[in-house]
Amino acid sequence: MRILVTGASGLLGLNVALEAAGEHTVFGVVNTRPLETKEFHVLQANLLNKGEVERVFEASRPDWVIHCAALANLDACERHPTLAHKLNAELPGLIASTAKERGARLVHISTDAVFDGQKGNYKETDQPHPLSVYARTKLAGERAVAEAYPKVTDHAPSAATQASAAIIARVNLYGWGLSGKRSLAEFFFNNLQAGKSVMGFTDVYFSPLLANDLGNILLNMLAENLQGLYHVGSQKSLSKYEFGVKIAENFGFDPNLIRPTALADAGLGASRSPNLSLCVDKLIHNSSISIPKLSTGLSRFYALYQQGYPQSLKEMGISD
Ligand SMILES: NC(=O)c1ccc[n+]([C@@H]2O[C@H](COP(=O)([O-])OP(=O)(O)OC[C@H]3O[C@@H](n4cnc5c(N)ncnc54)[C@H](OP(=O)(O)O)[C@@H]3O)[C@@H](O)[C@H]2O)c1
Question: Which DSSP letter does residue 152 get?
Answer without folding.
Answer: P
